[in-house]
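Good morning C.,

I know you're traveling, so I'll keep this short. The sequence:
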Amino acid sequence: MEMEQNQPIIAVVDDDPRVRESVEALLSSAGMRAKTFSTAEEFLKTDQMRVACCLITDVRMPGIDGWELQRIVMAEFPNLPIIFITAHQDEVARARAAELGAFAILYKPFDGEELLEIVTAALTESETRI
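The tokens, ready to paste straight into the viewer:
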């Protein structure tokens, strides 16, 4: 890692390339480094789960969905903050995210400033857990 090594790494898992690109650009504009993945399987094949400071994932994806990804990640890294983003607004999803220990759930289209505030809060909280 070059000069960016002190920047937090945020893993972004979403099957929509536009979401991945926009979230990556947004995080970069705030001095954070995003690593993007189009599937949960792609993310899980890397070492990013060990180095990421936060995970942003879609709920509904082909293959392993966001709920299963959260279960897998939390089993090994229970303090990694997970932020769900979904296009499907429903209270069942919100309740499930909270029950499973997600840091937050945002509905697409979401406000960029709100996402940055949530990521910043997640990073701050995860630092105090260590």
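Safe travels,
E.
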